[in-house]
Amino acid sequence: MLSKENLLAALNRVEANRGAPGVDGMTTAELRPWLLVHWPVVRAELDAGTYRPAPVRQVIIPKPGGGERMLGVPRVLDRLIQQAIAQVLVPVFDPQFSGSSFGFRPGRSAHQAVRVARRAIEDGHRWVVDLDLDRFFDRVQHDVLMARVARKVSDRRVLKLIRRYLEAGIMVDGVKMPSAEGTPQGSPLSPVLSNVMLDDLDRELFRRGHRFVRYADDVRVFVRSERAAHRVLASVTAVVEQRLKLKVNREKSRVVRASAAMLLGFGFYFTRNGVRIRIDPKALARWKAKIRELTSRRWSIAMDERIAKIDRFMTGWMGYFRISDASRAFRDLDEWFRRRMRQIRWKEWKRPRTRQAMLRKLGISERLSREWGGTSKGYWRVAGSPVLARALPNAYWDDLGLRTLKPTWQRLRSAG
Question: What's the whole-model pTM score?
Fold first, then answer.
């Protein structure tokens, strides 16, 4: 764990991830110079088993589906040490993890999880058990977790250090609050510890012969009948609550048909050619909300700068959702999106004389330019008119470098 190679790799990872400062205010840019002076003392404390982590800084962020999520931001020194621990734990634990576990594992991704789920549905498992672990990261019992870590880790100093990170506490408004249970999201150790904790659940599902997918605490079990699905939900709930000492959210856990199931922002639908992947309507609603924000007429910003911000968002969003089969949905959303861009242009032209001149410049006849240049119709009405659509066609926006959904999706799909 404390080898030069492992620590240097951990330092590079922490610096690359950047992130906000912890309770001491130190940034990732300040960490390396600080270590040149203070690392010998820290190393001696780690060797002696006397090192004490600082409490994490509490950060509350809104959940996409409503509610709030508590993140714990460790100070950058503790992020370095936790990263060093994680890098030696992963090769020990990961090879024995289930092939149906995809979250926070090297060489595995959300896209793989969605494709495995689709395959299970194609094979006739048309009922889905959607298991919701209630506040998983907040409820993990330290004794239960450490017993599982100790199955493969025998170094008492490492075990003690991991336990101290679990019990480091949370700083809330300048007051240190104890952490009797849970592993705060946001720490480099949290992902591997969550997989260690839930590996027993994976093994039990595999032992029973179930087709399932797990991504961190997101669990879906695929079965052939509704009756079997309800039976599985009841038995798996007992495993989670009795053996792992966690809690299943009975209000959110449910049994649904595969066509109504959602996983990691994706859903599924049936065609004559098999099961296809669609985008969760909630994810599409969040996309529209973000585009509304980026295309607000009240946001005074140059068009090239606005398009640059839109393109950054669009590239990241489509990079994730490119595996969906949503060509028709993308086409309809692009029409709405370009209409919002046209109303921005219309507002930028402001005066009737300017609007008339710009319409003429863009190939609209003198009569229509005069008629529409002086119209009193609202921005959205004008933006949807055939005249403005002809003046500002798709090619106009393509020349400005605007990325829209369907062409970006086609490009990413063709690139593989």
Answer: 0.88
